[in-house]
Give the backbone structure.
Amino acid sequence: MGFIPYSTQDIDDADVAAVTAALTSAFLTQGPAVPAFEETFAARHAVPHAVAVTNATAALHLACLALGLGPGGLLWTVPNSFVASANCGLYCGAEVDFVDIDPVTRNMSVEALEAKLESASRLPDVVVPVDFAGLPADLAALRALADRHGFRILEDASHATGADRHGRPVGSELADIAVFSFHAVKVVTTGEGGMAVTRDAGLARRLRALRSHGITRDPAEFVAEAPGGWHYEQQALGWNCRMTDVQAALGRSQLARLDAMQAARERQAARYDRLLAGLPLLLPARIPGLRSAWHIYVIEVDEARTPVSRRALYDALRAAGIGANLHYAPIHLQPFWRARGFAPGDFPAAERYGARALTIPLFPKLTDAQQDRVVDVLAETLARAEAA
Ligand SMILES: *Cc1c(COP(=O)(O)O)cnc(C)c1O
């Protein structure tokens, strides 16, 4: 049945037609497709401003800058994320620290954050919660803490395009800025790509300037009187983080199918829940009121109930041509972060999770037969371990 990856893109004829149309139009970049994608994305996420960029890493970096993070500043995030959630703080010259996760949701622990805020000698300027696997983080609780302690919330919603809290889309409220990724493995793709959304017009203006060298072409923003129609002003130090029209055309076409792709992911997640229920594994939590984007489906080996190791399950899946993976080894235990003073034991819940977790395949085109194969390999490996 061929190799089954943990995730892969879903490209259909409409996507190909949209990309072809962009390629043969007058613009490859800075044409009409980027604002059209931004408007569609903003509408889908019920937020007034969306700024498309080259990737979510750039979106996190520019968002930190737009929020005023700089040398002497402090950013807190979770260890259970892709390294970009932490690196963005260092890009700005700020310090970075971590807050442990809740073992059930695998998102930032509100209790751990509250305790750290109470005892910290220095309060964070920016806190970056991650909507892990697509499950929205508890932003209502974080917003209350942000208002009390004066930090900004930069939500890393890279996994969570289309997810919602009590019917309200991720990114629409509570965070100061939310960031999404369109890497090929994510729920909506542009190849590489990212988006920053905000309700704040001033932040949106700064994000737009930072993505294009710190330049503005809006006469209303000029410091000097414009000597002619050619005039633009560089008013800050920015970068070139612009998305191309080709990518934006793909993204907009993908968004038109987001509901259908999400329904496919939800169906598969429910199917895994049912098929894996009898096995000695921990399955993703279902939290009332939270609709996950199901970017990934992560199981955990429960050592209390089975002698099998995570390594044995991973190796068995890989040997069967199944692209099991780990999301994530804790960031603070990466060599780069250990060299910055972090050590095992610093964030026990994230470390325990990182030692037990295994991502199994989930993507819109995964067939029931492929899913059954994944379940069979897990069941057989567990049965063999129990018999031994
Ligand atoms: C994928 C990912 C990123 C980075 O996204 P890119 O678009 O690849 O730069 C950041 N944070 C998280 C949680 C991610 O999963």
